[in-house]
Each structure stands twice: as C-alpha cells, then as structure tokens.
Write a structure and sequence with these properties.
- By secondary structure, the protein is an alpha+beta fold.
- The chain folds into two domains: 2-122, 2-Layer Sandwich (D-amino Acid Aminotransferase, Chain A, domain 1), CATH 3.30.470.30; 173-292, OB fold (Dihydrolipoamide Acetyltransferase, E2P) (Beta Barrel), CATH 2.40.50.140.
- Helices cover 20% and strands 37% of the residues.
- The protein has seven helices and 18 strands.
- Strands 1, 2, 3, 4, 5, 6 and 7 form a seven-stranded mixed β-sheet that branches. Strands 10, 11, 12, 13, 14, 15 and 18 form a seven-stranded antiparallel β-sheet that branches.
- The two termini are 23 Å apart.
C-alpha cells in the first residue's frame, strides 16, 4: 500500500495515496519519530514483513480493517515501510534534485538508522532491455507486481505525468469463470447491470470467487444487461442472480489464500479480460485450477 511518511516537530504522519491519514493504523511506526530527523519526508510502500519474508495484500487488509490495532495483531502481521524516495531531509525540499542524488541520500539515511522499521527498495541498473525483461519475469517470486522504471536524472513528479517513470507490470494471471450475479452500476450506468460476480467449479457446484466491473465495451455491457434482465433467477435488493450460461476470462494481478472468501482464495484487481463466446460453462475453470496459480 503506497504511503508517505512525514515527520514534523516531533510528530509523524502517514498518508495514503488516496490522501487518507492512516497514522493510527500502524502504531509500530511511532518509533520513527525518535529515529529519524525532523523535516523528513519519505515516499514508499507499507508491506507486511515477518520472519524476513514479505507478506501479501490480504495481510495488509486485515490491518486496515480494524478499528483497534492490538499488540497481537502487530505481532502476527508486523508492518515496515519500504522506502522508494526521499522528498525532504531536515527541512530541505529535495524534489527538484535528480533521482540518483535522492537515492544516495536515502541510502545514507537508512544506514544511519539500521533499527528503524524500514527497508530500502532494491535498485537495479540495466544496460539493455533483455536484462530488464528477465528481471521482470522474477516478479512473482519477489512478491511484486513488476518493475518501476525511472530515469536516474528525473526530479520527483506530482500527479500522473509520463516520461520519466514507467511501470512495467508482470503479465496478469487469468482464469475462465461463470457469471452468476449482477448488480446495477452507478452514475450514468445506474440503469444498467454493470457490476458482476463470477464463480468457478468445485465438486460439481459453482463457487463465487471474484467480482469485476471493468473490461467490457459499451456494446457488450448493453448486451449483458439485456441477458441479466431476461435470465434472472432471483433478486436480492439491487442484485440479481442469473442463469449460469455465460463464461468470461477474468484477469488479476495477484492471488493469495483468504479465510474471508468462500472460495478460500482472494485475487487482486480482478477485471474482465474478454467474453468467452467460444466456451460453454462446463469448460470454465475449477477452484482447483485457481489454487494451482498459488504455486
């Protein structure tokens, strides 16, 4: 989870990328107020880190979903800040400095405070694109989504400016699933069924595993909306259960075991990759197929 750490006058603040103050969700980072100099701003990512191993996004969600973060929860799912960039040091704004300079200062800072609950993001230097491609293929084993490629002379940019930064994600995983439920959309799509629930086979039954609402064209959404209205089996408020007749390829970025989901599996950033007109529901994947992707 992306976050920025800001230290000011003996206090620290953690802000999410969505501009939400999340300081109280991670009390184990309170020690940074005493360990780092005031006037420091670090851009990074909050990650579960236990027994020298990076956890998964579902572990982090368990921390975010609690009103009270107990000592046991901090012990079971300890959090550290993976540092990417140094934006300010002792009150000096470094954002206009080149990335290589900011990284040197960040590396020096973390070496001065080795006991701080922080890690320095790995930096690689490549001489050709084949080396970049090979490193990108290692993303799964390193629990990452791919590579963040940055120009070494670039200043720190604000917003979604392109040119100096490029995120080269790993190829998404995918699986063929059956549409089982649909819900009305929001805004201009409030009259259309645009939010969908998908299921996989498990011992002859369809088991829900993911929800998705993006990936279809406007034409496909209208066709699917018509199907939902003509093939409703049951209604639950704004949700309709539909006849299991359609198969879709669902793409996602990550996968992890989860006790919160009926399938026992949680996928990250699911979206519809394509409508499988060429497949019958009997040809959709099984829950066991999905579990194989955990390996």
């Amino acid at each position: 989870m992306r976050a920025q750490l800001i230290l000011r006058k003996g206090k620290h603040f953690l802000w999410s990328r969505g501009e939400e103050l999340i300081t109280d969700k991670f009390p184990e980072l309170n020690v940074l107020t005493d360990q780092l100099p005031s006037g420091t701003v670090i851009d990074g990512e909050l990650i579960p880190f236990k027994d020298n191993c990076i956890g998964n996004f579902q572990d982090l969600q368990k921390r975010m979903g609690r009103k009270t973060v107990t000592q046991k929860l901090q012990k079971d799912i300890p959090i550290v800040l993976m540092a990417y960039d140094l934006l300010e040091l002792e009150g000096q704004d470094l954002r206009s400095q080149p990335l290589r300079k900011r990284q040197q200062l960040l590396d020096r800072l973390l070496k001065e405070y080795p006991t701080a609950p922080m890690m320095l993001s790995e930096v690689y230097w490549f001489t050709d694109w084949e080396q970049v491609r090979r490193e990108r293929e290692k993303a799964s084993e390193k629990r990452s989504e791919g590579l963040m490629i940055k120009h070494k002379e670039a200043p720190y940019g604000v917003g979604r400016k392109k040119g100096n930064w490029w995120k080269w994600k790993s190829d998404p995983k995918s699986i063929d699933a059956v549409l089982t439920y649909a819900m009305r959309g929001h805004g201009r799509r409030t009259n259309l069924y645009t939010d969908y629930t998908f299921a996989l086979w498990n011992e002859g039954e369809l088991v829900t595993f993911a929800k998705a609402y993006s990936g279809l064209t406007d034409v496909e959404i209208k066709k699917l909306d018509q199907f939902v209205k003509q093939n409703t089996l049951d209604r639950f408020g704004p949700v309709r259960q539909v006849k299991p007749e359609l198969v879709f390829e669902i793409a996602f970025e990550g996968i992890a075991p989860s006790s919160r989901h009926k399938s026992g599996i949680a996928v990250r950033f699911p979206r519809i990759s394509r409508w499988r007109h060429d497949k019958k529901i009997e040809q959709a994947n099984s829950l066991e197929d999905l579990k194989q992707l955990l390996q």
